[in-house]
Specification:
Number of helices: 1
Structural class: alpha+beta
Length: about 250
C-alpha cells in the first residue's frame, strides 16, 4: 500500500506539471475573452446611442484627472413641420407656439424638447438653447406640436425637426477603472457636467485602464465620426478595442 501511494503521488505530481500550462492557458484565454466581450458590448452601446444623437450636438472633453467625457443630445424621433399652405405653419419671423406635423403622428412626452436646424455654432447651438423649444403639450401620439413660444434662428431646408429626450454622457474614468453612462440630468452649456446624486447611471465596464474619445465633426453636408478606444486590464493582461461610429450631422 505504501509503495502504491508513493507511486500514485509521483504520477500525480508529473501529471500536474504537464496539466498546469494548458489549464493556465485556458484560464487566461477565458479571461481575455470576457474582457473583450465587455469592451465590445460597451462600445456597441455607445455607438448605438451616438447614431441617435441630435446633429451637431456631440462634444468630447477631459479634465485634469484624466477623466474623458463624451456627451450628446439624444433624440427619440423626428419629422417634418408644416412651413406653408393651409394649417398651422411653423413661423420663423416671430415667436411661435405650435405647428402641424406633415406625416403620421409621433409619440411625445412631457419632458421632450423640439430642435430645428441645429448647427452647433454660436446663435444656432442646442447646448445654449438657441435651437431648442420645450414641448408643452400632453404625452401621447400627436399631429400638432405645442411648444413654449420660440423664434428659431434658422429654418431647416428640409423642414425637419427632431424630438430631443435630453443629454447623455459617457464618462470614462481610468483612475476608478469605470465606464459609466449618465442621463436624465439638466443641460449645461459647459462641459464636463457636474452630475447630481439623483442622476440615473449605468455602469458599462470595470477594470478600465485607459480610454479615449475622438470626434471629427465634418461639415453639415456629411456625417461626423466618433472614434473610441477602450482598454480593459486584469491579472497583468490588457485587451484594447477600437471602434468608430458615424454621426449624422445633417440637421
Amino acid at each position: 500500500m505504501i509503495i502504491v501511494i508513493a507511486i500514485t503521488a509521483i504520477v500525480g505530481s508529473m501529471v500536474a506539471v504537464f496539466l498546469r500550462a494548458p489549464l493556465e492557458s485556458y484560464i487566461a484565454q477565458d479571461r481575455r475573452a470576457r474582457l473583450a466581450d465587455t469592451a465590445d458590448t460597451a462600445l456597441r452601446r455607445i455607438g448605438r446611442d451616438i447614431r441617435l444623437a441630435l446633429p451637431n450636438s456631440v462634444r468630447v472633453t477631459s479634465d485634469a484627472a484624466g477623466v474623458v467625457y463624451l456627451e450628446f443630445l439624444a433624440t427619440r424621433s423626428g419629422g417634418r413641420y408644416r412651413e406653408a399652405g393651409g394649417g398651422d405653419i411653423l413661423d420663423f419671423t416671430a415667436a411661435d407656439n405650435s405647428f402641424d406635423i406633415l406625416g403620421p403622428a409621433i409619440a411625445m412626452q412631457a419632458s421632450d424638447r423640439i430642435a430645428v436646424y441645429n448647427l452647433g455654432i454660436p446663435g444656432a447651438d442646442a447646448w445654449a438653447g438657441d435651437t431648442l423649444a420645450t414641448y408643452t403639450g400632453a404625452a401621447g401620439n400627436v399631429t400638432s406640436v405645442a411648444i413654449a413660444p420660440k423664434l428659431f434662428p434658422l429654418a431647416s431646408p428640409g423642414h425637419r425637426f427632431q424630438v430631443v429626450e435630453g443629454p447623455v454622457s459617457y464618462v470614462c474614468n481610468p483612475g476608478a477603472g469605470t465606464l459609466t453612462r449618465y442621463w436624465g440630468y439638466a443641460m449645461a452649456v459647459n462641459q464636463p457636467t457636474a452630475f447630481a446624486a439623483a442622476t440615473p447611471q449605468a455602469l458599462l465596464a470595470t477594470r478600465v485602464s485607459a480610454c479615449s474619445f475622438d470626434y471629427q465633426p465634418g461639415v453639415t453636408e456629411r456625417g461626423g465620426l466618433v472614434g473610441m478606444t477602450l482598454n480593459l486590464s486584469q491579472a497583468g493582461e490588457t485587451v484594447r478595442l477600437y471602434a468608430t461610429t458615424q454621426v449624422s450631422n445633417q440637421p
